[in-house]
Amino acid sequence: MKLNNQILWILIVVVVSQFSLAQNKTNSILFTNVTLHIGNGKVIKNGMMGIKSGKIDQIAPADASAKAAYEKVIDGQGQHIYPGFIAANTRLGLEEIQAVRATRDYREVGNFNPNIRSVIAYNTDSDVVPTVRSNGVLLAQIVPEGGRISGQSSIVYTSGDNWEDATLAFDNCVHLRWPNRLRYTGWWAQKGRTELNKNYDKNLEAIRVYFEAAKAYSKKKEVGSKNLKFETMKAVFDQQKKLVVHCDDAKSMMDLVNLLEKYGVKIVIQGGTDAFKITDFLKEKNIPVILNDIHQLPKNDDADIDQPFKTPALLQEKGIKFAFSLSNQGSWNVRNLPFQAGQAVAHGLDREAAIRALTLSPAEILGIDKTVGSLEVGKEATFIVSKGDVLDMRSSVVTDAFIKGKAISLEDKQKALYEKYMEKYQLND
Are residues 303 and 389 in the same domain? Predict the structure, then answer.
């Protein structure tokens, strides 16, 4: 009788072990023989990355014995894996056709609107979003525009059925448009004179008065009726939300830090064209910078013609945390985000530092680095697989993309049209 019971227990243990192993392997993938760009500056050549239940569970040099623990094994054959790129400060999903007013939904009336939520207008069915996703941009910060305080931005995945499902972080930043101290006349092909903004001090006073009123409201333990705008600012003062200040010239960036730091807010500078002039100040104040489009001419006549290209390397040298963004020309242009980093590499920026400025650095700046931004055990398996140099438009080919461990489509309208006319005119042969 005892022998039968022992056999029974052995059978149960074997069955449970097999079941546990099967359960452990379910929805599991191992990528092997790949170059892993971690996102924090480290690279593992001939490495492997394991995924289970939508999260990364292993990052290491390739080991054939690890294959048994995974349901599916993919030999990358020397391809490269990167964390999904993060596009900061974009109207992606908020506008479809830049020239058609009816398709633009990123601006509200009024001057101070911190309570506005941009994410509820995010269009997951946009034809523009897939073209961006095809180049490795898997997350985007959806930013409102207009007024002095434009509203709140959210972080979304570039794949999803609706805005609720697509959102990673809801309303985690408030955007302040700092007044321009300088006014540039002329147009892009022929610059005019640079003039001082006569209303600059008046505009700064309006910002100070608004912040004082919002701060006073936030200190009240009880209020008769809630002020939705000040309720949002209360979260900024409590550092539950970051304050992203859009500003470009050096003097104005120093003004905004000196004016706002007494309110105890977490400041992020968006734009930062002249950030290279005040690197010591930014380092001292520990202010991160999200750079605007670096594919532009310098603002100042006495600057080097390639100064915008060199700025990222100068910020890196000084230890200032920065990220790339591409918002000056509309949401359609966000697909070129990786090539911004490539331009900076050609002008002195370390290549892995450029990858970091597309992945982990924006994740840290936007407060989502515990979930995404790097290839680390425990983080979401949100990444891309590519051939060639992902920072070079001539050789970059993103072959696969995964969000939360699930493969997503890289098809888009532009690729469909390309294939259509290649076939029509028999150019595929």
Answer: yes
Model confidence pLDDT, tens digit, residues 14-58: 544 444 444 445 579 999 999 999 999 999 999 999 999 999 999
d(CA 52, CA 49): 10
Q: What is the mean pLDDT of the chain?
A: 91
Cα dihedral value 15, 21, 25, 26, nearest 10: 30
Give the C-alpha separation, 365 to 357, whole Å. 10
Q: Are residues 356 and 408 in the same domain?
A: yes
For the chain, what is the domain count? 2
Residue 294 has pLDDT above 60, yes or no: yes
Is residue 208's pLDDT more than 90? yes
Cβ-in-10-Å burial (0-12, 13-18, 19+) of 350 comes to: middle
Residue 429 covered by a domain: no
**Final residue in a domain of this structure, among 48, 78, 108:** 78
CA distance 88 to 156: 11
Of the pLDDT bands very low, low, confident and very high (cuts 50, 70, 90), residue 358 is very high
Which residues, at least 6 apart from 426, have a Cβ–Cβ distance to it below 8 Å? none
Query: What's at 332, amino acid-wise?
Result: W
Q: H or E segment at 133?
A: helix 128-133
Task: Count the alpha carbons within 13 Å of 262 in the hemisphere toward its beta carbon.
Answer: 8
Report, as an integer, the average pLDDT of 239-258.
96
Site of tokens 């490269």: 80
* Domain CATH number, residue 30: 2.30.40
Answer yes or no: do 246 and 193 share one domain. yes
Q: Containing domain of residue 56, as a range?
A: 2-78
What is the residue-wise DSSP string for 176-206?
Answer: EEPPPSEEEEEETTEEEEEEE-TTHHHHHHH
- Main-chain dihedrals φ then ψ at residue 93, nearest 5 degrees: 80, -5
Residue type, 166: A
**What pLDDT band is residue 328 in, cutting at 50, 70 and 90?**
low
Spatial contact of 276 and 347, defined as CB atoms under 8 Å apart:
no
